[in-house]
Amino acid sequence: PDGTPIPFESRYNGVQAGYFFGGTSVHNWGKDLAAITAGFPAVTERDVSIRAASEAANLHGNFWRISPSRLSDLKDPEADVNGDRPWLWASDWVLKGENQASYQIYADLAANAWKKFLAANEGKNDVKVAPQLADMMELALGNASFQQFTDHMHKGPCGYTIVHGDFHPANLMVVSLGEDKWDLVLLDWEVVGVGSGPQELGQFLISHTSPASRGTYFKEMVATYVRDFTATVGPETKGPSEADVLHELVYGGLGRWVWLLAYIAGSGAPAVVTQFFHDQVWHFMEEHSVLTAEAYNNIVLRV
């Protein structure tokens, strides 16, 4: 309550999963990755990514299109007398259609941060901004609205579910199960909430992976998510198709990274860091042909 950090000791023999993604990621610059990951010599970036897709599918499938009444049934000593969970990010927006002003605060934060960055970068060009990315950011931030967001959650084929909220490799841990077996543990549930499942995979890929590396397992990652999501919701439930998941992964992932890139760029991050994430988003746009105003209009801001 007083803001004092609470130390904890991990009970796992494990390594942060982001360290398996190589030295091209800004998260890993200057680190001795071979030494850090030496306890898991057989684990690769592909292994972590496929396992992450499976873990995400199990989480998202278990809570797909969760109703307010089912949310109230979940055991939680911190819930208020009505069973509400005010800490569950975006639950008031998606499940109740309430607190529109709070959504707009976060949308405006990103829009203002991006404007601040562009103004500071003008003339200096410390960060080389691709014109099409600039157009995409302007349109996505300009289109952002509470109605657009909630309509997409309710009417989009991938719907909504309980999401981790900040799903990227550095928030996962590869842990030893002994005898060369390992598992993946999700950490840092600070912004757990209600949102789009496949969007989390998009955030994951843009955050750490290079175009060359993810191209070798991207299709397998999507297929794994669809397979395990379908198994979790059950054969009697018609879930999203693989095409639906792919579309939401791409456009939802970009919607999340519009907010993140604007925030990073406008917060005074070093130019080299902003350039890295700019390039990550730009390469992702190129890979998936998100290069026209028509395509940009499919991007819904995820705050």
Beta strand %: 5-15%
Number of helices: 13
Biggest sheet architecture: 3 strands, antiparallel
Distance between the termini: 25 Å
Give unreliable regions as ranges: none
Give the overall silhouette.
globular
How confident overall, as mean pLDDT?
92
| Major sheet: arrangement of strands | 1-3-4
Oligomer: single chain
Which structural class best describes the helix and strand composition? mainly alpha
Q: What gyration radius follows from the Cα positions, in whole Å? A: 19 Å
> What is the chain-wise order of helices and strands?
EHHHHHHHEEEEHHHHHH
Percent helix range: 40-55%
How many distinct beta strands?
A: 5
Detail the topology: elements first, then pairings:
Elements: E1 14-16, H1 33-36, H2 45-62, H3 68-73, H4 91-96, H5 100-121, H6 131-143, H7 146-155, E2 161-163, E3 172-178, E4 181-186, E5 193-195, H8 197-208, H9 211-214, H10 218-233, H11 242-266, H12 271-287, H13 293-296
Antiparallel strand pairs: 1-3, 2-5, 3-4
Helix pairs in contact: 2-8, 2-10, 5-6, 5-11, 8-11, 11-12
Task: Describe the model.
The chain is mainly α and 303 residues long. The protein has helices at residues 33-36, 45-62, 68-73, 91-96, 100-121, 131-143, 146-155, 197-208, 211-214, 218-233, 242-266, 271-287, 293-296, and strands at 14-16, 161-163, 172-178, 181-186, 193-195. The strands form 2 sheets. A 3-stranded antiparallel sheet has the order 1-3-4. A hairpin with a 2-residue loop joins strand 3 (172-178) and strand 4 (181-186). It starts with 13 loop residues before the first strand and ends in a 7-residue tail after the last helix.
